Amino acid sequence: MAQFAIDKTDLRILHVVQAEGRLTNVELSERVSLSPSPCLRRLKQLESEGYIRGYAALLSPQALKLGLQAFIRVSIDKSVAAREDFAQAVGLWPQVLSCFALTGETDYLLHAFFPDMTAFSHFVLDVLLSHPGVRDAKSSFVLDELKNTTALPLEHLYAGMEAETETEARQA
Question: Which residue range or ranges hold the HTH asnC-type domain (predicted)?
């Protein structure tokens, strides 16, 4: 991943694109103060280098009648086969939006959406706990969403560039 060094213009492109992925190239170039051709070239380079993984529409769970959001902590058998089987299975469960392997008492954390408690119960009892290798599952339900963003923080990259610029200025 990331074989070339990004600069402040690339960071501006990343900042704008992750907030507004549907901008046309002309709109993006205006937002980052760059002409359209170099802007498109930089955008394509950021995509090919893996800085941009893809583009997506963010759907409303409530509008789609997915009002029950849960975080499920899963403990599994410690064998390599159990981990591999679980990883393969979780990829097939559409209710699970993300799955993280963790340190500590819990092996995995699932983030999932369901239409209601009946659908959640079916998933936990008939799918998750029935999966070979799963030893335990504990759930927490979201009561209120205080923050939900897909935007990654980029400030630390700007700060690193400023430090490099200051060092180069002192050396000159």
Answer: 6-69
- Give residue 110's identity as a one-letter amino acid code: L
In 3D, which of 24, 4, 6 has the Cα closest to residue 156? 6
CATH 2.40.30.160 matches 1-57: no
Task: Return the domain boundaries, the chain.
Answer: 1-57, 61-141
Burial of 89 (0-12, 13-18, 19+ CB in 10 A): middle
State the fold for domain 61-141: Alpha-Beta Plaits (3.30.70)
pLDDT tens readout for residues 56-95: 999 999 999 999 999 999 999 999 999 999 999 999 999 9
CA dihedral 97, 16, 159, 35 (to 10 degrees): 140
